[in-house]
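Recap slide: Bifunctional chorismate mutase/prephenate dehydratase, sequence and predicted structure.
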Amino acid sequence: MGKRTLSELRDEIDVLDKKIQLLIGNRAQLVAKVAQVKKASDDSSVFYRPEREAQVLRSIIKRNNSLLKDKDMAYIFRQIMSACLALEQPLNIAYLGPEGTFTQEAALKHFGHSVSTLDCVSIDDIFHQVEKGNAHYGVVPIENSSNGMIGATVDMLYSQNLKICGEVEIAIQHQLMSANQSQGITVIYAHSQALNQCQRWLNNNYPNTELKSVASNALAACIVKDEVGAAAIASEVALDLYGLERIAKNIEDKAGNVTRFLILGKENISTSFENISTSFEGKTSLLVVIKHESGTLCDLLEPFKQQGINMIQLEKHPIPGVKWEYLFLIDIEGHKDNKKVKLALTEVASRVLKVNVLGSYPIAVL
Ligand SMILES: O=C(O)C(=O)C[C@]1(C(=O)O)C=C[C@@H](O)C=C1
């Protein structure tokens, strides 16, 4: 058989597309049945199941031996699951606005594009909107690979009762942009995080320019749309969205600049797997306050060692409103209902002033 012509190849693609479409339709029908099962169950209002979504995406990546990259294959299935979940329950996701922030990018990467989004003015506002029930879930930054923890988020985790039900990572590349490149730049707007992440570049390239910190990078882009002589540091998405011109590309000081975001909700995520210890590729986050006495930090850590539990993270953070007193944000491997984790947590609780289990959730898949 000779080489197939363009139209023959397209005919074959049409046949495959028809099959794929039919299969996606069949999948949607199954998900509609899943919704019925959930409605009849105890936690009838919880349709979003991050642990199952993570399992689906991990399997997709594991068996991907196609020409497509893992991340692209996973993206396609992420969108299919997003559309399927919207059949069960249309979700509204709170993020740091306006449109074009990295937080919005994180929200869409995690939930897919079949959700609606609610733009919030601050990290505190995201917590409040979820708390009030105006959004089903919220997305907040927790940690940047160059700058460390996001204090405003830790403060709110301490003072609010929301649960962590997922995490997502986004590569952060900053663009310098303005409405009109021919004008000299007298002021640069950005979120304080972006100013920190680009500090060296700004010192080298704009040593005498005024730097103004605003609530988000997308807001900075929005402001400079109408301000002569002003530039903004924001994302590629914001550059396109607000019709600005790029002055400089990827100005972050450190390559591989990544921000980790948390997904917040009102409920603990379901533990629908029969054997949590073997099938849950996840972690548990805790906030702990210990006595200001010799040996108390060792006492806190010992139960994890005794149970052979790996600690992923241990961060010290000032307790909001209490001078020179600190809380610890701890991430450990495993689900809070796993036998060993449970034993360790009970022991920890007996040794510290306060322990708040923020949630157990799947480790970011991509
Ligand atoms: O398995 C479920 O619980 C579903 O609702 C199905 C499904 C999917 O499309 O695979 C959809 C939404 C959930 O968040 C998880 C998975």
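The longest helix spans residues 6-39.
The domain at 6-171 is CATH 3.40.190.10 (D-Maltodextrin-Binding Protein; domain 2).
(End of recap.)
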